Amino acid sequence: MGKKANGKETEIAVDERKVLKLAKFHRIRPLLFEYDKKTSLLAIKNKEYLKIFVTQNALKNLKDIYHTKKLLQQFETAGIPAILHKGLQYQFEIYENPQLRERGDIDVLVQKKDVLPSMNVLKDQGFGSEILNPDQPGTEIGQPIEKLLSFNYLYQLPVNNKSLLLDFQWGVKSDFHSFHFPYPLIFHKATLRDFYGIRVLQVDKESLFWLMVIHHGGKDQWMRLRHLADLSAFMKTYSTQIDWEAILITARSYGLQQVLLDGFQYLKTLLSISLPIPIEERLETHENRVYKMVFNTWQTCTWGDSRFELTSMYIRYLNRDNRNFDPGYYIKNLQHHYQKKQAMAYPEKYTPTDFIYDTIKLPIKLMRNK
Q1: Whole-prediction pTM
Q2: Residue 81: enclosing H or E segment and its boundaries?
Q3: Quick one: which of 125, 3, 9, 15 has its CA closest to 69?
Q4: What is the pLDDT of residues 64-112, one digit of tens each?
Q5: How far apart are CA 361 and CA 363, in angstroms?
Q6: Among 300, 301, 333, 331, which residue's Cα sits nearest to residue 315?
Q7: Are 35 and 20 in contact (CB under 8 A)?
């Protein structure tokens, strides 16, 4: 709504198709639904679309919570420390209304030494992928899993059964990422706490923060507004309980200082959120050299549409925190990552043409545009 000189409200033209496209890309459709309740921004048919989506999202959350609890209990029975990561954990811990967060699959972290016994747990629960067949004997799992673990640029394997889509992980970054993180530390600091009626292993609030910064900022460069919604929810929940001076020092040691400050700058600029004094002071001298690129992505919804764009963006972004960053090494290992992950996890989508493009054409293009 707007206002004329006489004080009467006037209608503001809204491109509803674009609004829905943006909401889908940024994965904030439940937030748009709540916003529309207060503003009546959308036409009836689009309100109904969002209402159906939000209802389905809520039902999916309930189903996923039930099956995730069962899976985590199976890991505990097997004596394997397993930690819930990202979406479902954020909904439970930092969102006042969990249904406001749009979510995809389930993410579970284990330590690398526990990957093989974890695979046996997953197999027993009917999870499968190209290298994990629920019907194969346990003795046949070891060799492909050991081969998978030998690739230092891989740290996750998507698996699924009839109930859950699971991103099974034994790390949070590849060795070619320019930042660092002491992954075993999150297990050392994790404690057993309530999760919808059962006690499961959960990270402490600082580990939750770093895992969010690593994924949303370090890997995805805050390219979706849902990332900022998560950061905002964390700040509302834990801001007064964190030593932000220590966080800034740690960010520098991890090689995540620029990434962290970018996220806070977006929060302040877009959402007008009051930030802790140490963060506010540091932002006064912070130079964000990629904001135009990020804003353009937010508006055009093109993040990840092409591997060329994705990789070149990574190079420009990650080079800021590490002056010794080697683009050639990064490109080489990123392509290995895509080849192995795509070929092993999504064989039906990974064609010979994709392989040729990854191994020959793309590296040449990227080196020319470095």
Answers
A1: 0.82
A2: none
A3: 125
A4: 999 999 999 999 999 999 999 999 999 999 999 999 999 888 999 999 9
A5: 6
A6: 331
A7: no
